[in-house]
Amino acid sequence: MASLIACPHCGPRPKEEFTVRGDAGITRPAPDAGEDAWHAYVYLRDNPRGRHKEHWHHTSGCRRWLVVERDTMTHTIHAVSDASAEGATA
Amino acid sequence: MTSYRLSRGGRIDRAKPLDFTFDGKPMQGFAGDTLASALLANGRQLVGRSFKYHRPRGILTAGAAEPNALVTIGEGGRTEANTRATLVELYSGLTAKSQNRWPSVDFDLGAINSLLSPFLGAGFYYKTFMWPAAFWEKVYEPIIRKAAGLGRATYEPDPDSYEKCWAHCDLLVIGAGPAGLAAALTAGRAGARVILADEGFEPGGSLLSETAPVSGKSASDLLAQTLAELADMPNVRIFSRTTVFGWYDGNVFGAVESVQKNTATIDPNRPVERIWRIAAKQAILASGAEERPLVFGGNDIPGVMMAGAMRSYLNRQAIAPGKSTVIFTNDASGYAAAADLEAAGLDVAAIVDSRPDAARTWSGKARILPGAVVVDAKGGRSLKGVTVLNNGRTETIAADALGMAGGWSPIIHLACHRGAKPVWSDAKAAFLAPQAQEGLTVVGAAASIGSIEACLADGAGKAASTLLALGFSKASAAFAEKADTTIVSKPLWRVHGSKGKAFVDYQNDVHLKDLGLAVSEGYGHVELAKRYTTNGMATDQGKLSNINAIGILAEARKVSPADVGTTTFRPFYTPLSFGALTGASKGKHFQPVRKSPLHDWARKNGAVFVETGLWYRSSWFPKAGETTWRESVDREVLNVRKNAGICDVSTLGKIEIFGRDAAEFLNRVYCNAFLKLPIGKARYGLMLREDGMIYDDGTTSRLGETHFFMTTTTAYAAGVMNHLEFCAQALWPDLDVQFASSTDQWAQIAVAGPKSRTILQTLVDEDISDAAFPFLSAKEVSLCGGMLTGRLFRISFSGELAYELAVPAGYGEAIADAIMDAGKPHGICPYGVEALGVMRIEKGHVTHSEINGTVIPSDLGFAKMVSTTKPDFIGKAMLSREGLMAEDRLSLVGVKPLDPATTFKTGSHILSEGAVPSLENDHGYVSSSCYSPNLGSTIGLALVKHGPKRHGEHVTVWNDLKNEYTKAVLCSPVFFDPENGKLHG
Ligand SMILES: [Zn+2]
User: In what order do the strands lie in the sheet with B594-595?
Assistant: First the structure.
């Protein structure tokens, strides 16, 4: 019903202000990385039980994309950082 | 004889009588009554009929666990079914009705179900489903539907309002009984921000009904002093009438506060209920304990009540349970009730104590029967007496009230809401809260502590250590340490030898034999037994029954309750109203309405509006004498193509893009080239998804070296913004680029038609001739002699000579008026999105009807737009996939009927001429269609296999919904002015 995400820019905010995009552990391949790499990037996702890094957008706040490390079972949030600070995923 | 009000005593205010009705009968109670206590005061013990057997049922508890006294409160739109009378604060004008009875609660025809009870046992639904269908349909279902069920919801709208809000605190204390009050006092004194929430209308918990001295004071004095001190603390907030119903991640708690559920005169400016989301650094669970019923024959006859509830009604509301009471007990609590009854001058016929070594300290008048049990209670609609099995001898005792004291179970629901399972303790004969969980500390009776003094000490001590850990260095316990000396008895899960039905789950009518049947039929696992018997599945979720069911299953399986385990605890602790959950999100507040800055302009020009997402857009502008929308739209289209028209396009998404790398960034998010777009020029751009499909389209203009202005479609404005931000922040954080949505900052007006330049030139100070301002120009311009600066774009969706003029939103209406005035001599008319749609189909321009998530640029004839030289852009890699190169992909084509008198609809399928509809013969579908007044015919855009190669081919357009087959021809998607002569005019 209600959990809080500690935005590094705005402080703890209700999750309704955010939009989740999905796995932040994947890296956008180089344009010539080949079909397999691109297929994996666009379509293949793990569905882990436990700690998982995800991209969350602080849509109704600072509008920064964040990397949220969340436990998919307990919803405990272990870490939140700005996506740009995570190092380019390109 | 039944229950009645004593002339003295209690915490009620006899100077404040309150009139209410039950089943239409006028009754009176006092301030300080619950509906349940007021009913008992009026001698009304029978208040409902049970779910399955329609047995007469009375008030069993004095709290949230009540399984029987479910009533319907209120009238009309305020009707609220299945309300627990034990939690309803009495108010003047309250109307309550009993449920699940026909024609009346006293005489209920549904009670015939009791005679059918051999067929209604455990697993009844599963077994009867296997009977012949006809028997189920014709015999069982009508009976069940008529007879079973709870209260009925109203069909009228709820006239009241609800709200949701947040609260923040250092310490949330759940429950204002002794342990909770001690914790709140400790925290308040330490200077912490405290919220103390309690479901009752009067804080105090067991202190409200305690008659023995506590810490050398009377319980009521201790309570009054504590509340007075808390009330003086600005850092402590007391939420009465507030049930904390759930514990969620982030240590956020859900609570519902009853704001105006205790009055018949609702202030419309305030909510009736409020949902709180409480973010607490730490929380203390002081939710108390629930007394266990005893399972013996007839334990549901009105007059049978929990001993603790009896004591609460006696001491809080001065209710005598009857003329003569029998106490059936398994622990010390029964004696406390008996002592209070005798102190009030009431007769206690006997104390039946199942423990052979019971209570040598009893000094009251009542005789004690140690080692005895009540095997059966006698009576129908009210209790007449009990049959006691006393050391091998049977004895009948007359009584009109029976108090059951089966021991206590800690209320640990909240502590289990995040997945942890309770732990069985043999020493405490109870399931205890899971071991230490971060953020929540369980205290007092909820931690299985027995005496009030030990609860005070426990709440204070645990609060002090919690606060020290939070950094409140001054924190010290408000009450001294006190050991709990309560002796816990071995539980009595069931009485052997009962003749009558011994109920375990009152609300769902599950009795002892049902559980036995579940075990013998192989459903002894706690989760299976629950579903097989429905024990614990009623609206009370087994608050009273689950523990006895587990004990009974354990006995039957010859294991410990620890081995049986519990079912899962889930929010909500008590039922919540849909109104509270909905909050303010209803009616016009369900979602926001977006209005263009030109909304009022459009309205005064007679626009008919259409909802598109959150937006209201002007659809068409009917003139006097026009009777159909088509007449208006045809006129608008013809007039734009002949003279000029003005259209509100403010709803298009608008994004300002700045930064040294803005051009490079756009080059990566569009599939076509943007790096070298000159300043002062607009370009149509196609944005792809990473899988190669088209995501959105629009024009982007370069207003400066490092400043671009992007437009998106109305529907995808927010999505494109999120996408751009993701690309910039997560994919390419090294690029210097920033975005600002300016959709609401600009009023944007399309002026289209051969006379558009002449009209606009009267407003625009700069020269906008074709030479000075050719197609795809985009510049800041001065308007009306320098009064205003706007942005002018020479772009066209209609295919006409056309411009889009953007001005700051507040000037939109004035500028639109000025354009209308300037255009009057030239025959200008306002046109809406319908006419816009007709003109774009006439020109073969695509929208999201075509960009539907399945098309790539080449499908829409945009193959040449896709850059082959750019090293990378979103979607580039996947665009060369095998499937996307296939020859027979559905591709854009025009379609029109052979006979202009015939027509077809969007969504119809394209078949080879005369072919029978089938998957094989399906060649595609019509994505957009309209009537073109310029061509005098229906026209359509379609996505068809090999489409561009089939211009001129005759096909059948098939509409299965209407069973229509239209002969048609495929053609170029550009129906009108294919040379674009008008565009460049
Ligand atoms: Zn933020």
Answer: B594-595, B615-620, B608-612
Q: How confident is the model at residue B149, as a pLDDT?
A: 56
* CA gap B659, B359 in Å, rounded: 85
**Contact B654/B710 with Cβ under 8 angstroms?**
yes
B648, β-bridge pairs: B749
**CB distance A1–B254 less than 8 Å?**
yes
List the structure tokens of B139.
């015999």
Interchain pair B725, A65: CB under 8 A: yes
Contact B878 A76 (CB under 8 A): no
Query: How far is Cα B334 from Cα B808, in angstroms, rounded to an integer?
Result: 78
Among B246, B691, B730, the residue with its CB nearest the CB of A1 is B246
Could B252 and A1 be called an inter-chain contact, meaning their C-beta atoms sit closer than 8 Å?
yes
**Is the alpha carbon torsion for B543, B546, B547, B548 positive or negative?**
positive
Cα dist from B865 to B683, B727, B761, B818, B853, whole Å:
11, 22, 33, 38, 18
Residue B369 one-letter amino acid: L
Amino acid at B97: K
ipTM for the complex shown: 0.97
Q: Which chain A residue is nearest to residue B166, measuring alpha carbons? A: A14
Regions of chain B where pLDDT drops below 70: 1, 102-103, 108-120, 122-149, 359-360
Quick one: pLDDT at residue A89? 46
Can you tell me the distance from the alpha carbon of B72 to that of B91, in angstroms, rounded to the nearest whole number? 15
Q: Which whole-number Å values give the CA distances from B95 to B35, B75, B80, B156, in the listed order?
A: 10, 7, 11, 17
Residue B388 structure tokens: 């006691």
Cα(A34) to centroid of ligand 1, in Å?
36
Assign B120 to helix, strand or coil. Answer: coil
The token duo for B449 is: 């502590």
**CA-based nearest distance B252→chain A, Å:** 6
User: Is any Cβ of chain A less than 8 angstroms from the Cβ of B870?
Assistant: no
Runs of H (alpha helix) within B213-293: 219-231
The CA distances from residue B683 to B710, B824, B879, in Å, are: 10, 31, 22
β-pairing verdict for B964-971 and B890-897: antiparallel
Residues 11-50 of A with CB under 8 A from B: 12, 14, 19, 21, 24, 28-33, 35, 38, 41-43
Structure pTM? 0.88
CA distance linking residue B51 with residue B827, whole number of Å = 74
Residues of chain B with C-beta less than 8 angstroms from the C-beta of A12? 250, 279
CB of B126 within 8 Å of a chain A CB? The answer is: no
Total number of residues shown for chain B: 985
Distance of alpha carbon B513 from alpha carbon B55, whole angstroms? 17
Domain boundary assignment for chain A: 4-26+36-86
- C-beta atoms surrounding B965 within 10 Å: 17
B647 close to B662: Cβ distance less than 8 angstroms: no
Distance in angstroms (rounded) separating the CA atoms of residues A63 and B896: 47
Tokens of A74: 């307990």
What is the Cα–Cα distance from B830 to B753, expressed in whole angstroms? 12
pLDDT at B51: 79
Q: CA–CA separation, B80 vs B486, rounded Å?
A: 41
Q: Give the Å distances, CA to CA, from B627 to B202, B609, B630, B837, B903.
A: 65, 16, 9, 20, 21
Compute the distance from residue A68 Cα to the ligand 1 centre, in Å. Answer: 12
Tell me how far the alpha carbon of residue B722 lies from the centroid of ligand 1, in angstroms. Answer: 14
State residue B499 phi and psi, 5-degree precision: -95, -40
pLDDT tens digits for B688-705?
999 999 999 999 999 999
Please answer whether residues B644 and B635 qualify as being in contact, where contact means their C-beta atoms are separated by less than 8 angstroms: no
The arrangement of secondary structure in A4-26+36-86, i.e. its CATH architecture, is 2-Layer Sandwich (3.30)
User: Does B722 reach chain A within 8 Å, measured CB to CB?
Assistant: yes
Distance from CA of B547 to the nearest CA of A (A): 27
